[in-house]
Amino acid sequence: MIYEKKVKCPVCNKEFMTTKVKTSKLKLVKRDEDFLNYYKGEEHPLKYEVFLCPFCGYAAMEKRFDKIKPSGKSIILRNVTPKWHKRDLKPERSFEDAVNIYKLALYCGEIIKKSKVELGNICLRIGWLYRIQGIDNEEKRFLRYGRDLFEESYYKEDLRENGYDEVTLSYLIGELSRRLGENEKALNWFNTVFTVCRNNKNPVIEEMARDQWNLVREGRAQKANTTDNE
């Protein structure tokens, strides 16, 4: 299920091997409403989406690993590398290993001031890793961090520049709010999806938002009926 890939670190310019999952071998089992995929088999590609340089300690999501400015490289070499001890990374990552590597990527992203949506994506994935392990309190903690970063990004950043659009991000903020039990906020963001979709058609996301909007309303109605009966 896994193979090794040679990568050159953009910070220290050294080459290292990192592990990837063979996507051709993956069989999707189900998908959660916040886009977490589940696959048949023991290896989950989520564990390997962060590249970590074993020489200097720089870590980032695979798709953003090379996208670091000269000023960012200096910050990593000044703030991460002196505290980092070169290590031989095991090809296979446990979920605990993956969480720690993601957290290092989050720290690197914060100190080099990556976009809020990028940091939110890392937090979301840490939450997913905890969900797969059934650690509910840590899952919710990182979903909240991710939701708040996405919300800040929605108002302050150019979403297209960061590979997102208003519809998808509005839906994701709404769904994470629903999972955190913040139903009014969830409804407001699902309503934003419907508003944005008038000009930017995305029928798949719009239908997902409608399903989750109905789920929140039904849950609220059931709670009200239970309270009345008491």
Automatic annotation (TrEMBL):
Top-level taxon of origin: Bacteria
Phylogenetic lineage: Bacteria, Bacillati, Bacillota, Tissierellia, Tissierellales
Protein name: DUF2225 domain-containing protein
InterPro entries: DUF2225
